[in-house]
Specification:
Layout (H helix, E strand, L loop, with lengths): L17 E4 L1 E2 L18 E2 L2 H15 L6 E5 L8 H14 L9 E6 L1 H6 L2 H10 L1 E9 L3 H6 L6 H13 L3 E8 L7 H15 L3 E6 L20 H13 L8 E3 L11 E2 L4 H13 L1 H4 L10
Parallel strand pairs: 1-4, 4-5, 5-6, 6-7, 7-8, 8-9
Antiparallel strand pairs: 2-3, 9-10
Helix pairs in contact: 1-2, 2-4, 6-7, 7-8, 8-9
């Protein structure tokens, strides 16, 4: 069997998961900072094709050796619920270790796709075996979300987040440090902390903005004031400092774009993380750090 895909990306934490395209492309496909799927049409892959691929992987790797499956595409949750439910059940039946505590079936999602589904539909996906969803909050600032053409506002992000978690599906949010550039750096940090206080996600992950050649932001690379590394670290510090004690999220810096590698569980590790970032910012070498300027995801 020859398997052909378009572009396939996944969260860093899913590096060792089986990657299964349920959709291809991105239904929204307009975010200024991204552009990954600009030249790839969006479509939902037929069940017959997805099922054949699952059977192929079972034959190749063995049913007992797969315990993590990431349903790939810009947002697998954009597929119809009946379609997704059948795919998830097929994954769970073929690879039963995905349903064990250490296993998982996961996906990207955009808030539009979560909001389109009813609470009952989301519970059906949870009961079928969907354990965790990764969603880009990106920023808690409506001004920045509009500037970056995210296609939503903070209210929608909060509503979708709560709706998903109420179904029993875990939520991991992405925050892009530096997304507002130098002029909106403080607003980005304060408003993002405000949104996290309202959501209290299971997990949130930091990554740092890089202006990629495939993105529409690339055309503004000479005028967009990209935050230097010390300002990126300051944003993360400001976010953590402004989180309230009821926030119980896990915190990760698991992307190659980041300048720190701190991880922890809130609220118990909050002060240690804040202390570390403050020490880093006081180090004169931090002010001299150059922006990584990565040209790929």
């Amino acid at each position: 069997m020859t398997i052909q895909h378009g572009i396939l990306i996944r969260p860093p934490v899913e590096a060792y998961s089986l990657l299964l395209n349920v959709t291809e492309g991105c239904r929204w496909n307009k975010c200024k900072f991204c552009g990954v799927y600009r030249n790839q049409p969006y479509w939902v892959r037929p069940l017959e094709l997805v099922f054949k691929e699952i059977d192929f992987y079972a034959m190749q790797y063995g049913r007992e050796f797969i315990d993590r499956v990431f349903m790939a595409g810009g947002s697998a949750l954009s597929a119809p619920t009946d379609h997704l439910e059948k795919v998830i059940k097929k994954i769970a039946e073929t690879f039963p270790n995905t349903l064990k505590p250490e296993g998982r079936i996961s996906s990207y999602a955009k808030n539009h796709d979560i909001l389109r589904k009813t609470p009952d539909e989301l519970r059906r996906l949870k009961e079928a075996g969907l354990k965790i969803v990764y969603m880009g909050l990106e920023s808690g600032s409506d001004k920045i979300l509009k500037m970056m053409r995210k296609g939503t506002n903070v209210y929608g992000q909060i509503k979708a987040s709560k709706k998903l978690m109420e179904s029993g599906i875990k939520l991991s949010l992405y925050i892009i440090l530096g997304l507002g550039g130098v002029p909106l750096s403080e607003e980005h940090a304060l408003k993002t902390a405000e949104a996290l206080n309202k959501i209290n996600p299971d997990k949130f992950r930091f990554r740092t903005l890089n202006i990629l050649p495939i993105s529409d932001l690339w055309a503004e690379r000479d005028t967009f004031q990209i935050c230097p590394p010390w300002m990126i670290i300051q944003e993360e510090l400001t976010i953590l400092e402004n989180l309230e004690d009821h926030v119980t999220s896990e915190v990760y810096n698991d992307h190659m774009s980041n300048y720190v590698g701190i991880e922890g569980k809130l609220p118990e590790d909050k002060e240690d993380m804040i202390k570390y970032l403050k020490i880093l910012l006081k180090d004169p070498r931090t002010k001299k750090l150059k922006h990584k300027g990565l040209l790929s995801m």
